[in-house]
Design goal:
The complex is a heterodimer of chains A (472) and B (211). Chain A is α/β, with parallel strands linked by helices. Helix content of chain A is 49%, strand content 24%. Chain A contains 14 helices and 17 strands. Chain A is rod-shaped. Chain B folds into 2 domains: 3-137, 3-Layer(aba) Sandwich (Rossmann fold); 146-206, Winged helix-like DNA-binding domain superfamily/Winged helix DNA-binding domain (Arc Repressor Mutant, subunit A, Orthogonal Bundle), CATH 1.10.10. In chain B, strands 2-1-3-4-5 form a 5-stranded parallel sheet, with helices on both faces. In chain B, helix 2 packs parallel to helix 3, helix 7 (152-162) crosses helix 10 and helix 8 crosses helix 9. Classes of the chains: A alpha/beta (472), B alpha/beta (211). The structure holds adenosine-5'-triphosphate (ATP) and magnesium ion (MG). The site of adenosine-5'-triphosphate has 14 residues of chain A, from helix 13 and helix 14.
Chain lengths: 472, 211
């Protein structure tokens, strides 16, 4: 007993000499003798007050007092988890049978051989400790499983239920064994196709069923189900079924989705407001400021007719001229008038000409007329405009094209350049850019898509929009 | 007889300026002023004019619609459009709708008299720059030859087809999709009433377009 704790022993023996012999022998062998009692009641009283002390009781069968050894042992067994070894002078089969009624015990017959005594007690202590560990870990295990949120069911290899945790019992309180469900899960008919889950599990070891509806007697809940086999030496011993309630997760996902939609609506709204404001400001600048400037210019020109030396008036006139041009440019940058009055074709044609002052841009369209709702027209125009500004800013291109086509109820806008392509900024902190994001938002708004493909030979931006042409 | 003028513009300050120019010029008389399209139409019903000067951006009835109305009730009356908008965006559209001339407001001080003098004798007036562009055939309204019906892009593709390039070669060269070029090809054939590439080549050579 070098590394083990010394076994804790109680001796119940009414014969003092025998009791001393037992005590000395066991002490010598390293056991700890907690106490020696000469009758069963004293022993039971002690255990009542100190229930966790003893691991093994050496019990004489023939005891004086109200209880003999067998009765005492039975009382011990019902209330405590303690191993008992009987000591008997009798070889009467009757007694042995009586002693075996509750649990089989070891018998030592007097006179006791010391070596046999030590060995038996040692074995008894060990077996006590083993079974105690086992019981404890089983309790620990089922407590743990009871406290986790998912329902756990284990079955044998044919699907008979062996264990269910608390949650599993809660889900299936009435039908004691949800046998049909287990069968259903193991061999089920999903979407018209017969899948033998047992086969799948055999092959893969486990199977995950996500977002299935579990029909309980009183309600349906969305769950994820994990089926796994328990194997030893490649033999399937049984299955574990783990059912996780995902209604909360689902609710959260729904909430997130709702929130996302709200955000999108919000950003769409902002964009509309922004566009409306732009229109307003552009018109204001152009129509109000512009008129005054034009008038100014007219008057300067007329003054020139009246005054002889008009070099300074010439300067003023050219300033007024520049101002008119600036006003026009600012207004048009905000919101080109053609976008309000022209078709998308005219607007894109104008845009390509505008950019052609810095880079040759040609515009091609497979349609000769195309009437779009004002807001769609604006979004397509803005995507093309942002793409072209990106080309000017980043691409170092010598050529760009805009293509617009209508095919199979889809409008496709393609902007190509022959520049250097989108460069990955290695390691550098990514700055927040709005351009591409805005383009994607504009496409998304029409349930369309925006893709950017880039190589060393240039970049292609493709935006597609589902579109149903109406008669008007 | 003085030239009788109708002046329609919603900005009084600008109208005053323009009237200033006109009144300083012998032979011109501003008979009526209007600050929106409806007023202009009402003025037309009351008076005889030799020329109408219309702004594009006017409340109630805009310049384009006013112009259309003028053309339907008084087709002979020359209309000169005077606008803040640059002519490359609007001139052609206005001319197509029946205007005799187009002038930006800041050009008025130097070109207005010249423009009026031209349109009252039945001529057309646009700025020298736009006139040059129009002469280049960028914006054709009617055509003597089928190829004049083509837009400049279509014309570009026409020439490339005529020089023997395939649709995909053209697409590659012009940096667009093959689909786009084949659509352009069918459109060219349709507009010019031709059926194949050989006819295109023949047409282009015959008319000496390959220079
Ligand atoms: N045509 C292009 N060629 C090469 N790189 C491009 C091209 N278009 C976009 N990029 C790259 O993609 C990045 C993101 O573009 P985005 O339009 O979102 O941002 P930005 O133009 O830098 O800034 P912002 O548009 O917000 O003013 C750019 O910074 C650039 O590096
Ligand atoms: Mg950008």
């Amino acid at each position: 007993m070098s590394e083990e704790r010394p076994g804790k022993i109680i001796i119940v023996e009414d014969e003092p000499f025998q009791a001393r012999f037992l005590t000395l022998t066991l002490k010598k062998a390293g056991f700890e003798i907690i106490d020696v009692f000469d009758n069963g009641k004293a022993n039971l009283d002690y255990l009542k007050n100190n229930p966790h002390d003893a691991e093994l009781i050496l019990m004489d069968i023939m005891l004086k007092g109200a209880l003999d050894g067998i009765e005492t042992a039975e009382a011990v067994k019902t209330n405590h988890d303690i191993q008992v070894i009987f000591l008997s002078g009798l070889t009467d089969d009757d007694v042995i049978d009586r002693a075996n009624v509750s649990t089989p015990h070891t018998f030592l017959f007097k006179p006791v051989d010391p070596r046999q005594l030590v060995t038996s007690v040692l074995m008894g202590v060990r077996s006590h400790r083993l079974s105690k560990d086992l019981r404890e870990s089983r309790t620990w295990f089922s407590r743990t499983l009871d406290n986790i949120q998912s329902a756990i069911i284990t079955t044998d290899r044919v699907g008979n239920i062996i264990f269910r945790n608390k949650k599993a019992l809660e889900y299936f309180p009435d039908f004691g064994l949800p046998q049909n469900m287990v069968e259903e899960l193991l061999v089920s008919n999903r979407e018209g196709q017969k899948i033998n889950y047992r086969e799948v599990i055999k092959l893969k070891g486990s199977l995950n069923l996500e977002s299935v509806i579990l029909q309980l007697p009183d309600r349906n809940i969305p769950v994820d189900i994990l089926l796994a086999s328990i194997t030893r030496n490649e033999r399937i011993l049984g299955y574990v079924i783990d059912i996780i309630d995902i209604s909360e997760k689902k609710a959260q996902q729904d909430a997130i989705q709702k929130y996302q939609i709200q955000l999108q609506e919000f950003s769409d709204n902002l964009r509309n407001i922004q566009e409306r404001e732009r229109i307003k400001i552009a018109r204001e600048i152009h129509d109000e400021l512009g008129q005054y400037l034009a008038r100014l210019k007219i008057d300067i020109s007329r003054l020139k007719l009246d005054i002889e030396d008009n070099t300074r008036l010439n300067d003023l006139e050219s300033i007024a001229d520049t101002l008119v041009k600036r006003v026009r440019k600012v207004s048009s940058d905000l919101r080109p008038k053609i976008l309000d009055d022209g078709t998308i074709l005219e607007a894109l044609d104008w845009l390509s000409k505008e950019f052609s002052q810095s880079l040759p841009v040609s515009f091609f369209c497979t349609e000769e007329v195309l009437h779009l709702p004002q807001e769609l027209k604006t979004d397509i125009f803005r995507i093309a405009q942002e793409s072209l500004s990106n080309i000017l800013k980043h691409a170092r291109a010598t050529l760009a094209t805009i293509e617009l086509s209508l095919d199979d109820n889809t409008i496709e806008l393609v902007i190509r350049d022959n520049g250097i392509g989108v460069k990955k900024n290695n390691g550098q902190k990514k700055k927040k850019t709005m351009g591409v994001m805005g383009m994607k938002e504009r496409a998304r708004r029409w349930k369309g898509q925006l893709n950017i493909v880039s190589s060393d030979n240039g970049t292609t931006v493709t935006a597609s929009f589902p579109f149903q042409e109406t008669d008007n | 007889m003085k030239t009788r003028i109708l002046l329609a513009d919603d900005h009084a300050i600008l109208r005053d300026g323009i009237r200033g120019i006109l009144e300083a010029t012998p032979g011109f008389e501003v008979v009526a002023e209007a600050s929106d399209g409806m007023e202009a139409i009402a003025a037309l019903e009351k008076n005889q004019f030799d020329v109408a000067i219309l702004d594009i951006n006017m409340p109630k009835l805009n310049g384009l619609d006013t112009l259309k109305h003028f053309k339907s009730v008084a087709p002979k009356l020359p209309v000169l459009i005077l606008s803040m908008y640059p002519e490359e965006q609007y001139a052609v559209r206005m001319l197509k709708a029946g205007a005799s001339g187009y002038l930006t407001k800041e050009a008025a001080s130097n070109q207005l008299i010249q423009a009026i003098n031209k349109v009252i004798i039945g001529g057309r007036y646009v700025s020298p720059e736009l006139a040059e562009q129009l002469a280049f055939g960028l914006t054709k309204t009617e055509a003597d030859y089928p190829h004049e019906l083509l837009s400049d892009r279509e014309y570009q593709v026409l020439i490339m087809i005529a020089s023997g390039k395939s649709v995909s070669e053209i697409a590659e060269e012009l940096f667009v999709s093959v689909k786009t070029i084949s659509t352009y090809r069918s459109r060219i054939l349709e507009k010019m009433d031709l059926t194949n590439n050989a006819q295109i080549t023949h047409y282009v050579i015959k008319n000496d377009l390959l220079t």
